[in-house]
């Protein structure tokens, strides 16, 4: 009998080989899944929440948009609003002047460029926004449960292998060390996950939204689209002004 055949026969004697292989597979994937992928996603969501809430430039822009809305609605029941729905930000490009292509967004960008040019680069405060907008909390919840369930199955197999005898001694030693190393890390990650979920809900509330109706993904995607529209209109304003200056120069000559 060859060594390979003997090895196969020895493997066949190991109780619950499938469960043991799954336990080792979880051990191999653990660091990549938890440290590299899951923690990175949590950090991105948390960073985006902090950036959005701490950006004084974004806050000032929101204030001025509210002021503009109240000015336009003066004399109506909506003329003294204390806030607005986030999706209203995306409607600023829907309202156009009857005499030009200028939208309310173009007007806002012109006003900021003229009176508060330092606000135009508010997007630089939001470096994590685009990456965070691609992350779904529902998927993170599923990943968290999968990691917890995987670790629980590893513990179950370790307990079950206690009666396997000498054939599982190496397996038990390796798995026992692994569990001892990762349990504290799992507690840390689980706590951080809870904090991130609370911060994500608090972000919706910060913008006057109900987190059950306007979850984190919707908040970040709406603001990201607003940023893109704002920058596009600002760029169009700049090109239009450059074109007008060019025409003036030609007329003068």
UniProtKB/TrEMBL annotation:
FH2 domain segment(s): 1-253
Stretch forming the signal peptide: none
Pfam families found in the cross-reference section: FH2
Protein name as it appears in the record: FH2 domain-containing protein
Record-stated family: Belongs to the formin-like family. Class-II subfamily.
């Amino acid at each position: 009998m060859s060594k390979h055949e003997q090895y196969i026969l020895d493997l066949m004697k190991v109780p619950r080989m499938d469960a043991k292989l799954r336990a080792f597979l979880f051990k191999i994937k653990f660091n990549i899944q938890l440290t590299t992928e899951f923690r990175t996603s949590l950090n991105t969501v948390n960073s985006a929440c902090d950036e959005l809430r701490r950006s004084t430039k974004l806050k000032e822009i929101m204030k001025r948009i509210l002021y503009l809305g109240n000015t336009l609605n003066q004399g109506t029941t909506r003329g003294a609003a204390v806030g607005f729905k986030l999706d209203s930000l995306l409607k600023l490009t829907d309202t156009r002047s009857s005499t030009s292509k200028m939208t309310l967004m173009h007007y806002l960008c012109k006003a900021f460029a003229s009176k508060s040019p330092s606000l135009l680069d508010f997007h630089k405060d939001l470096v994590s926004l685009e990456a965070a907008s691609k992350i779904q909390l529902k998927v993170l919840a599923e990943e968290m449960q999968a990691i917890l369930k995987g670790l629980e199955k590893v513990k179950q197999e370790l307990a079950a292998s206690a009666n396997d005898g000498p054939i599982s001694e190496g397996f038990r030693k390796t798995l026992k060390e692994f569990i001892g190393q990762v349990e504290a890390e799992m507690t840390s990650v689980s706590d951080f996950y809870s904090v991130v979920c609370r911060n994500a809900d608090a972000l919706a509330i910060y913008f006057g939204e109900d987190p059950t109706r306007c979850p984190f993904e919707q908040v970040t995607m709406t603001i990201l689209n607003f940023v893109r529209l704002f920058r596009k209109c600002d760029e169009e304003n700049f090109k239009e002004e450059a074109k007008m200056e060019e025409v003036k120069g030609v007329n003068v000559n």
